[in-house]
Write a structure and sequence with these properties.
The chain is of the alpha+beta class. The chain has one helix and two strands; from the N terminus they run αββ. The relative contact order is 0.42.
Length: about 80
């Protein structure tokens, strides 16, 4: 949020306006519906594809480390002349 405000202030300054209050905040990190969610099978009797092979084993490291999280937000600000 702090980074969004810094960027919005820089854009407002360059545009010759002052930044107003926050109008909305949206989470862009959500893995919601994608471009392939609207695929429709039109055949009367479509057979199911074979199951995928099992995934390969995953090595698990036992050394503790920091957890990183990435969140993308869209913040919309009002502008003042």
């Amino acid at each position: 949020m702090a980074e969004a405000k810094l960027q919005a202030e820089a854009i407002a300054r360059a545009s010759g306006v002052r930044l107003g209050g926050v109008l909305s905040v949206s989470n862009l990190s959500f893995n919601g519906p994608g471009p392939y969610d609207d695929i429709v099978v039109t055949a009367q009797h479509a057979s199911a594809p074979p199951p995928p092979p099992p995934p390969p084993p995953v090595a698990v490291g036992l050394k503790p480390r920091a957890i990183e999280t990435l969140v993308k937000v869209q913040v919309v600000y009002a502008i003042q002349p």
